Amino acid sequence: MTIIAEGLKFPEGPIAMDDGSIVLVEIARGTLSRVQPDGSIEVIADLGGGPNGAAIGPDGACYVCNNGGFQWREVGGLLFPGNMAADYSGGRIERVDLATGKSEVLYTECNGNPLRGPNDIVFDRQGGFWFTDHGKGESRKRDRGGLYYAKIDGSEIREVVFPMVEPNGVGLSPDEDFVYVAETITSRLWRFKVVAPGEIEPVGRFVGECIAGLPGHQMFDSLAVTADGHICVATILNGGITEISPDSSSVVHHAFDDVITTNICFGGPDLKTATICLSTTGRLAQVEWNRPGLALNFLNK
């Protein structure tokens, strides 16, 4: 494992760019940032709230899930997110021009219901995007979350699955026949059959199919998919990456030295360089993965 950057304020949503840089969010800093190959960090846009997940769209802009803000606490030099911030600014989807840093808000609600804590995002081949809303927690209550689909021009947003229990990571299978969602607190990985952009097919009496779950005290965060369809889910408390085969016959944990390992992305010429967010310690790590990652739509071309 090689540490390529330190001093980040709870990094998440990494994107391996073709120039070798990593675009990511710093949730506690409220920014969309870029880590250069030499480890230097520059702010692309100051978004406020809690920028959480990020993805490059068909127009080359970066689309950001903003959860509106967390409370933060530092314990033993480690930074931990908590409940909804006192200055919570509302959940939203934002578009950022990477060249200028200019941002605009695309969505703040769906069907009259406010977005509470948009979390992770992935684009399909048609140029639309799936995203999760994790919800927000307060001292005595917790939102239910969901899976959504939207278009980049602001013309359409739809609630596809609701409710879910703290949905977090989202990704597509290589053929885009399935959309995967990882639930944090249940540590369950769900699979939904995609029949058209933004549409899923029920499985028997249920909307989706649970293909994996973890025992004990460990939880799921964000995810990425490999070229051969394995789902790599960032795992917190038992910090690391849990790699799950598409038929769920194999579940392998790759340990990393941060209790809240939040995300993974793939880059490099062969897409075998995994960049991993070690978030409580504010570090970005890289390691050669055992299989290449899936080339993302509108990136890695």
Kindly report the average pLDDT value.
Answer: 96
The appropriate CATH architecture is: 6 Propeller
Low-confidence stretches: none
Question: CATH superfamily membership, which one?
Answer: TolB, C-terminal domain
State the helical fraction.
under 10%
If helices are DSSP runs of H or I spanning 4 or more residues, what is the number of helices?
0
What is the CA-based Rg, rounded?
A: 17 Å
Explain what you see.
It is a single chain. The protein is mostly beta strands and 301 residues long. It has one domain (2-217): TolB, C-terminal domain (Neuraminidase). The protein is 0% helix and 53% strand. The chain has no helices and 29 strands. The chain has strands spanning 2-5, 11-16, 22-26, 31-35, 41-46, 51-56, 62-66, 70-75, 78-84, 92-96, 103-107, 109-110, 113-114, 118-123, 129-133, 145-150, 157-164, 167-172, 178-183, 188-196, 199-201, 209-213, 219-225, 231-236, 240-244, 251-255, 261-267, 273-278, 283-288. Strands 18, 19, 20, 21 and 22 form a five-stranded antiparallel beta sheet that branches. Strands 1-29-28-27 form a four-stranded antiparallel beta sheet, with no helix packed on it. Strands 2-3-4-5 form a four-stranded antiparallel beta sheet, with no helix packed on it. It is globular and about 50 Å long. The mean pLDDT is 96.
Secondary structure blueprint with pairings:
Layout: E1 2-5, E2 11-16, E3 22-26, E4 31-35, E5 41-46, E6 51-56, E7 62-66, E8 70-75, E9 78-84, E10 92-96, E11 103-107, E12 109-110, E13 113-114, E14 118-123, E15 129-133, E16 145-150, E17 157-164, E18 167-172, E19 178-183, E20 188-196, E21 199-201, E22 209-213, E23 219-225, E24 231-236, E25 240-244, E26 251-255, E27 261-267, E28 273-278, E29 283-288
Antiparallel strand pairs: 1-29, 2-3, 3-4, 4-5, 6-7, 7-10, 8-9, 10-11, 12-13, 14-15, 15-16, 16-17, 18-19, 19-20, 20-21, 20-22, 23-24, 24-25, 25-26, 27-28, 28-29
